[in-house]
Amino acid sequence: MKTRKVYTAQAFATGGREGSVTSEDGVLDLKMNLKNDGSATNPEQLFAAGYAACFESTIQMLARQQHLTLTETGVNGLVDLQQDENSYGIAVVLEVSLPEIDEETAHDLLEKAHQNCPYSKATRNNIPVILNLVRKMTSTL
Fold first, then answer.
1. What does the domain layout of the chain look like in residue ranges?
2. Region for residue 67 given its phi and psi (left: phi exceeds 0; alpha: psi -120 to 50; beta: otherwise)
3. What are the backbone angles phi and psi of residue 96, rounded to the nearest 5°?
4. Mean pLDDT across the stretch 23-35?
5. Domain 43-134 in the same topology as domain 1-41
6. 138 — pLDDT class (breaks 50, 70, 90)
7. Which NCBIfam families does UniProt cross-reference here (predicted)?
8. Most buried among 41, 98, 114, 119, by the most CB within 10 A?
9. Residue 137's pLDDT is what?
């Protein structure tokens, strides 16, 4: 299968978890904070945001292909930073709300999205990813 580049994102980090991250277009200009005390972001929050947005977009694309109209979808991405005796790693839980369709169709859509989402492909067999279908999500923000 031939692939073509659609888009290249670029971000520059300096100072690691106590530094900053900026995007080439200036849209992102974020302070990083190891303490996760609410004063700045961290890599796990950025990964959770990217994965949730990409997964939701994949669901919408697949729904359109199946002639399903979804207007109330939502994906809550949770990324855990984990540590064992040797190193650090991450684990992901995606809580997906698809209240407009029946449970069987929703589970089928979740599985298809997990097979097609670029983040799911990138993480497959590398980190644990759990998909949870929730019937109605309320923002935790």
1. 1-41, 43-134
2. left
3. -115, 125
4. 93
5. no
6. low
7. organ_hyd_perox (TIGR03561)
8. 98
9. 67
10 Å CB burial of residue 108 (0-12, 13-18, 19+) is middle
Identify residue 16 by its one-letter amino acid code. G
User: Which amino acid, residue 3?
Assistant: T
pLDDT in tens, 63-96: 999 999 999 999 999 999 999 999 999 999 999 9
- Locate all alpha helices (DSSP H) within the chain, ordered by sequence: 43-65, 103-116, 118-123
Task: Give the distance from CA 78 to its chain's centroid.
Answer: 8
Give CATH for domain 43-134: 3.30.300.20
Residue 73's φ and ψ, nearest 5 degrees, are: -75, 160
What pLDDT does 53 receive? 98
Pick the CATH number of 1-41 from 2.20.25.10, 2.160.20.60, 3.40.47.10, 3.30.70.270: 2.20.25.10
Is 81 within 8 Å of 90 (Cβ atoms)? Answer: yes
